Amino acid sequence: MLMNRLTSEEIFKWCSIPWQSLEGCEGKKIKLAVRKDRAEMMAEIGNLMADEVRDHNAKGLPTKWVLPAGPCDEYDTFVRRVNEERIDCKNLWVFHMDEFLDWQCRPYPVADTYESLEGTMLACFYNRIDEELRPPEDHRIWPRINNLDYPDEMCDKLGGIDTVWAGIGATGLVAFDEEPRDYWYRPTVEEYADSKTRIVDINSDTMVAMAERSFGTCLDRIPPKGLTIGFHVICSAKRAVYMVATGDWKKTVCRIMLFSEPTTEYPVTILPKYVPDVTLYTDEYTIDHPMSHDTRGW
């Protein structure tokens, strides 16, 4: 069925809970792991990543991930451990979340630039892993405009994803899977959960957030379109690890993802319906909502 939009009353209630009380609250849809700061949190996640590949290797199993091109600081710990401990990543399959397109739906050249997420991942992930341990190129699954079905077909062929490692947008995006805002189609939660790899217009609030974070809110610097893997791939996972430590931008969405029923208004809320093990990792500042303090009459 189509999920109604969340009410202000629901959101205000969730935001008013002191963060120290969240762990004991009934009705949470996912697990919560709060760490002191971003550095501690991302180092722990990097270790979780290295442990998963190492453990799967010991069992003779492939490792199948969905990875973001941001945040990237978890890769520091992962790459260090891979190189130091000689953790073989030749059997690691990586489904990349998304890629930017220009206003004419054309991809940008692959380079270490903001517009090229493939170039970003080469610089911060692949090229930092020792060559003899590095995932082969045919194990790196990118959404491409000339073969949109390939990620979904490969996901099905491999039997689904092990872990989604995901940053989350302020309005609940995962990859560039955002709230549908078109008058002409209104997908249900079930339809959205089976959505395929596709070309998307990036929602305006996401463009503002990216421009503010990187370019002094110069909106002209942000690509307006993208390619994204759909939730068909993401919802096939056994586990999802949300990484959210961006402070004020994410305080409200953290509360929504903890308590909301599935809704396309905040797509991140859909995952717990399909993924059996979901954890939000965050830091004390991000999870501490101002509306849980003196709100001066809100």
TrEMBL record:
Q: State the InterPro entries in the record.
A: GlcN6P_deaminase-like (IPR052960), NagB/RpiA_transferase-like (IPR037171)
Keyword RNA-binding part of the UniProt annotation = no
Coiled-coil annotation reads none
**Species lineage, top-down?**
Bacteria, Bacillati, Actinomycetota, Coriobacteriia, Coriobacteriales
A single MF term (Gene Ontology): isomerase activity
Q: Which UniProt keywords apply?
A: Isomerase
Record's keyword annotation contains Isomerase: yes
PANTHER family in alphabetical order = GLUCOSAMINE-6-PHOSPHATE DEAMINASE-LIKE PROTEIN BT_0258-RELATED, GLUCOSAMINE-6-PHOSPHATE ISOMERASE
Name of the molecule in the record: Glucosamine-6-phosphate isomerase
